[in-house]
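Data deposition worksheet. Section B asks for the primary sequence of the deposited chain exactly as it was used as input, without tags or linkers unless they were present during the calculation. Section C holds the resulting structure in token form. Section D is free text for depositor observations; keep each observation to a single sentence. Incomplete worksheets are returned to the depositor.
Section A, Depositor: J.P.
Section B:
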Amino acid sequence: MGQASIGDLLNDKAREQMRSMVDTGKNISDLKAGEKTDGFYLIKSFEVKKTTNGKQYIDIDLVDKTGEINAKIWEYSEEKEALVASSSIVKVRGEVLEWNGSKQLKVNKIRPASETDSIKISELIPSAPVDKEEMFHEVKSYVNKIKDTEIRMLVDTIISKYSSKLYYYPAAKKNHHSYMSGLLYHMMRMLQSGEKLGQVYDFLNMDYVYAGVILHDICKILEMDSDEYGVVSDYTMEGKLLGHIIQGIKEIEIEGEKLGISREKSVVLQHMVLSHHYEPEFGSPKKPMTPEAELLHFLDIIDARMFDFQHAVEGVQPGHFTDKIWLLDNRNLYRTTN
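Section C:
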């Protein structure tokens, strides 16, 4: 179960007012177990669940520009569910607890934000740290570096087809790069890393490397429903039934046939998309069978891991350990002092 988009819930007057207001409340990244908080947060997603004894509660993922925290409304009521379902920005008063090595917020009071509240909406929207126009220009520069005319034409056609959504789409509903313009940021950093590694491993066909990076996740735009702030309400019907890997293969094949590109080039690019998750349980029925496909997989892994490491250690002081990071095998990460 998800929530309506922020754009649907904020009228023009509220948008304008929120842009001019000053934010209050503690940033999520600054919250510590044992503390209390009383601030405004964005509802990323929610679900009504049941405890082991059958009691209903509301499980919420709250975000602001600095991070994300899971919250629980243990005292369930239909009114509270309706409030959460109809609100994107809420004021929450609660206690920060620790559960299984991770921070969690016990919600004592919650209400929708109103036009009279002191809110700066830009502080509530997590987004990539680089301007979206700059990132898009950088990605397009790599398209222009593709020497093969057919491959360049195919990549340019697909990226142009989805350019408007690429500006704001996240790379995931949860986990790495799950914020506004996250998909574009993920793509840009993989291209930059791939270019450097191509200078070391100079036998690689960089046309396939650049094309594979740009196309490997492009159909996440079709897999997920995201609003203009990069908040994903749910996966699409096709996304649930097929997933972005199959959708990406279809896109390459269909657009490639329209453009009349070489069958071999189309199949090689489809294989790169098909194999970039590496294992069947992660959606890839074939392992990489070209060096460019192998590199694509590891570029994807490196960027996702570095994202997780960076955001985890930013939340602790030098010389200290993080909470256990579930995405990183429940490791406690250490932030060095120099």
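Section D:
The longest strand covers residues 36-50.
The chain is about 40% helix and 20% strand.
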